[in-house]
Write a structure and sequence with these properties.
The complex is a heterodimer of chains A (516) and B (357).
Chain A (H helix, E strand, L loop, with lengths): L6 H9 L8 H9 L4 E4 L8 H9 L3 E5 L3 H13 L5 E4 L5 H9 L6 E4 L1 H4 L2 H8 L3 E6 L19 H7 L4 E6 L4 H10 L6 E4 L7 E7 L3 H14 L4 E4 L3 H14 L5 E4 L5 H12 L5 E4 L14 E4 L6 H8 L9 E7 L5 H10 L3 H17 L7 H8 L3 H13 L3 E2 L2 E2 L3 H33 L5 H6 L39 H8 L10
Parallel strand pairs in A: 1-6, 1-7, 2-4, 2-5, 3-4, 5-6, 8-13, 9-11, 9-12, 10-11, 12-13
Antiparallel strand pairs in A: 14-15
Helix pairs in contact in A: 2-3, 14-18, 15-18
Chain B lengths: L1 H13 L5 H9 L4 H9 L14 H13 L3 E3 L7 E3 L1 H13 L15 H19 L12 H14 L3 H16 L4 H10 L10 H8 L3 H21 L5 H7 L10 H11 L4 H8 L3 H14 L11 H14 L4 H7 L6 H19 L1
Antiparallel strand pairs in B: 1-2
Helix pairs in contact in B: 1-5, 3-15, 6-7, 6-8, 10-11, 13-15, 14-15, 15-18, 16-17
Classes of the chains: A alpha/beta (516), B mainly alpha (357).
Protein name (chain B): Helicase Helix-turn-helix domain-containing protein
InterPro entries (chain B): Helicase_HTH, WH-like_DNA-bd_sf, YpbB-like
Organism (chain B): Virgibacillus indicus
Chain lengths: 516, 357
């Protein structure tokens, strides 16, 4: 360990920050001392530094398991931009040739991001066992819990892998883990005495506001009005990609002085990076987005976060609204709700997992396959196609089939009794998962229609206390927009330069670009 | 409406002799023998590979749109063969008048060049403008390793002379862009990223210029082809752009597999032997031979078809006025194979091309 430099000095050398944010130093110190940690830090508090700095300082390799491929790729980009080059993200989208080269050279990296699915592959595990792995990080650790809002079955197998890797120091991180979920995490990792660093997630500079409307038209006119009244960087969250696109277009027409764009997971990587960077760079005022936006975004002056649709659970809402006011300035989180809004998340819950009827049909198909003596297709997409399941549904089912010993590396194994038991058990599990999600949604709905203080009720399932509001509390405590006077950014002047002048400016030709 | 116009143009040339998937493969630039043969057969070389990211879903939607508008009509008794209606032809003529872009494309010539050229240029501008301002932590808008490596290399050579390089790029781009319409030039410039100024993405361009996002992608490709034409015409006028292009190879027109077959053939292996060594079906090797004949004028086709039979096949083509293999086959002796017909067609196609040049 390079202990001759203080942690602050290392932070400055490697990442250019002059001081730690709340919680970072305490967690890093414990990691350097080899303690297993559960860290609950609110969104935007710089969770990733908690392992990125140790990855630099510790001997050997740090592994980060992260469920979101786009997030991993973003992080790797940012690290490389900050001159941390010994970093790579491994995921199933890599070309076989590229993957092969990378696998041969894993020892050259300090920090390796891996998706939970890929980590299950024997080929990769064999490589990892040969390496000197000193820190094993589980990002979004709430995915380990059946009761969490984003349960990922592969996360339950992490413990076995940690053992195979000779028990490196474990760091489990999450932004939103309710108390029961925290217990699940330490149980699933078989670390009952894990050291907990829990930091409050409540945000005293955000004002909460719920507004009931009768129709979508009304939502649009509210958005139009707010964007006309205030010039602050804003995010508008949607559940559907199409709605994000359409509303961006509509608002651009209604608010021509605002620079509005949309962002969602269905866009190409390059088109997404562009929007992120433009927003960070103040080239955009408003981004209409889905929950795919914001992860890894570090913009401090977002002062308005609007939810056009109802989020599926409080955890998502807390994360998304928490992107407002990182600079500590007065910010508003507005949630718009119309009478029909609860149906959209309900139908998403219904479609998220295969139905019991689906399972019956698929079992029959599997049996036919078994009788014909064939293996399942190697390509996941063609299996999804065959069973008419989406990616998430098939991932869930494949995991279950493996768990019950019905398939093993693509080969189908038939035993009538096992299959019957599996059929019932999978059906029960699906109903259970749906129930969890429905309960989560009910909590969200209850909060929206809460008569008491919104702030108090938003955080009560996660922590025992909260700080009083720094500016205005919430719409139930009497807040109206008429009293909001946020720090505003200056209005952009629409430039109507000719292409030639634009090109000149772009290429830094002329006065005022004499940095060198 | 650019995508639609180009689909109509392709359908017009194909005259219902191929399924509409063949048009998809042409636009998407599929490296298969069938597609490569089609573009030569139907003079669609300019559209080959001009829309690499086109998905089948989007393409099918466009086709259905054109059918509903009455511009494409199904060939009687078939499922996926379409011809262009009178309405379609008239509409295409109108489009050609109002949109010069349709003539910008030069797909086959710039296959493998277009993307590399534009990726290098975009990333180089982003890099040099940032480093000029001593700003080294930027997120690159192009995340492809070959482009990154090329830019790194150039950066190391030019790093103290950013101002000079940017001046050269400005002068050359200015002259190039003056040769296209102002709107096209503006779109090209809007796409560029520089220091503290991220360029627009496809969807933002679509909103600004009121095009579909598919048309924006095609427009950008068209503009690039046009610029490449201008650069190639007078290389000495555009030394820096030529420098960017210098080591980009078109990647050879032959599919990789056909290329391997050709090497065996040149070393004197028979078809049977090549199939055996490469563990491929003989029919696949025959496909390769046809592909080779399309590109290599000196390929000895009489090795496979004697001259008398070549004559017969050419005569049959003239009398059917079609490239439909079935029709041709019916007019020639029974012992002439489909392979021989395709080979003669490929070879005569190649000859025609040389004469025109």
């Amino acid at each position: 360990m390079k202990q001759h430099q203080s942690l602050e000095e290392s932070l400055k050398t490697y990442f250019g920050y002059t001081s730690f944010r709340t919680g970072q130093k305490e967690i890093i110190k414990d990691i350097m001392n080899g303690k297993d940690i559960l860290g609950i830090l609110p969104t935007g508090s710089g969770k990733s530094i908690c392992y990125q700095l140790p990855a630099k300082l510790l001997e050997g390799i740090t592994i980060v398991v992260s469920p979101l491929i786009s997030l991993m790729i973003d992080q790797v980009k940012q690290l490389k931009a900050a001159n941390f080059k010994e970093v790579i993200a491994l995921n199933s989208f890599m070309e076989p040739v590229e993957r092969n080269i990378v696998y041969q050279n894993l020892h050259r990296y300090k920090l390796i991001y891996i998706s939970p699915e890929l980590l299950q592959k024997q080929e990769l595990q064999k490589k990892l066992v040969q390496l000197n792995i000193n820190l094993f990080v589980i990002d979004e650790a709430h995915c380990i819990s059946q009761w969490g809002h984003e349960f990922r079955p592969d996360y339950l197998k992490l413990n076995t892998i940690i053992e195979r890797l000779d028990n490196p120091t474990v760091l489990a991180l999450s932004a939103t883990a309710a108390l029961d979920v925290q217990d699940d995490i330490s149980k699933a990792l078989k670390r009952p005495t894990i050291t907990k660093h829990i930091y409050p997630m409540d945000r005293d500079n955000i004002t909460f506001c719920v507004q009931e409307v009768s129709h979508d038209h009304e939502k649009i006119s509210i958005l139009h009005q707010l964007l006309s009244d205030y010039h602050v960087p804003a995010l508008i969250y949607f559940t559907s990609r199409k709605a994000a696109e359409n509303t961006a277009q509509l608002l651009s027409v209604k608010n021509p002085s605002k620079r509005i764009a949309f962002y969602h997971g269905g866009m190409e990587q390059i088109d997404r990076i562009t929007i992120q960077q433009q927003f960070m760079n103040d080239q955009l005022d408003v981004v209409c987005c889905t929950s795919a936006f914001g992860m890894g975004i570090n913009k401090s002056n977002i002062h308005l976060v609007i939810h056009y649709h109802l989020p599926p659970q409080l955890e998502s809402y807390i994360q998304e609204v928490g992107r407002a006011g990182r600079d500590g300035a007065s910010s508003v989180g507005l949630l718009l709700i119309s009478p029909n809004d609860v149906y959209l998340p309900r139908s998403i819950i219904e479609k998220e997992l295969p139905s019991p009827e689906d399972i019956g049909v698929i079992f029959q198909q599997l049996l036919n396959y078994f009788k014909s003596g064939e293996k399942l297709p190697a390509n996941e997409a063609s299996i999804e196609n065959m069973f008419q399941l989406n990616e998430v549904q098939w991932r869930f089912l494949r995991n279950q089939l493996e768990e019950h010993g019905m398939i093993d590396t693509g080969k189908i194994k038939y035993d009538k009794d096992i299959w019957i038991a599996a059929y019932h058990s999978i059906g029960n599990l699906i109903n259970e998962r749906k129930l969890v999600k429905k309960n989560k949604l009910n909590e969200m709905v209850q909060w929206v229609f809460e008569k008491d203080c919104l702030r108090k009720n938003l955080y009560k399932g996660f922590q025992s206390t909260y700080s009083p509001a720094a500016y205005h509390c919430c719409s139930n405590c009497g807040f109206t927009f008429s009293e909001w006077s946020p720090v505003e950014t200056k209005q952009n002047v629409k430039n109507s330069l000719s292409w030639e002048s634009k090109l000149k400016k772009l290429l830094l030709i002329g006065e005022g670009y004499e940095a060198k | 409406m650019l995508v639609e116009a180009i689909i109509i143009k392709c359908s017009l040339n194909i005259k219902g002799e191929r399924t509409n998937s063949s048009i998809y493969h042409i636009l998407q630039g599929k490296k298969s023998i069938q597609t490569v043969q089609d573009i030569h057969m139907y003079q669609l070389e300019s559209y080959y590979g001009i829309f690499r990211s086109l998905t089948k879903g989007v393409f099918d939607k466009k086709i259905n749109g054109l059918i509903n508008e009455g511009m494409l009509q199904q060939v009687f008794g078939t499922e996926a063969f379409y011809t262009v209606s009178k309405t379609g032809e008239e509409w295409l003529d109108q489009q050609k008048k109002s949109n010069s872009m349709i003539n910008y494309f030069n797909g086959l010539n710039y296959y493998g060049v277009t993307d590399v050229f534009i990726e290098r240029l975009i990333l180089l501008i982003q890099t040099i403008t940032n480093t000029k301002m001593n700003h080294f932590n930027f997120i690159p808008v192009i995340d492809k390793t070959p482009a990154e490596n090329w830019v790194k290399n150039v950066y190391h050579k030019k790093k103290t002379r950013e101002t000079e390089v940017l001046g050269t790029i400005f002068n050359e781009l200015k002259r190039l862009l003056h040769d296209i319409s102002d709107e096209e030039a503006e779109m090209f410039v809007d796409r560029l990223t520089s220091y503290k100024n991220y360029g627009m993405n496809i969807y933002q361009l679509a909103a600004k210029y009121d095009f579909t996002s598919e048309d924006v992608q095609l427009q950008l490709t068209g503009i690039t082809h046009r610029l490449l034409d201008l650069i190639h015409r007078t290389k000495s006028d555009f030394p820096f752009m030529s420098y960017i292009l210098r080591d980009i190879s078109a990647g050879g027109y032959l599919t990789n597999s056909a290329d391997k077959t050709y090497n065996f053939f040149k070393s004197g292996f028979s078809i049977e032997k090549i199939a055996q060594v490469r563990q491929l079906k003989e029919n696949t090797i025959y496909d390769h031979i046809v592909e080779i004949a399309l590109y290599d004028l000196n390929f000895p086709i009489s090795h496979f078809v004697n001259e008398a039979n070549q004559e017969k096949i050419i005569k049959a083509v003239r009398s059917t006025k079609s490239y439909k293999l079935k029709d041709i086959k019916q007019l020639v002796d029974e012992d002439i194979t489909y392979f021989q017909i395709r080979l003669v067609l490929a070879h005569s196609k190649n000859l025609q091309k040389q004469v025109i040049k």
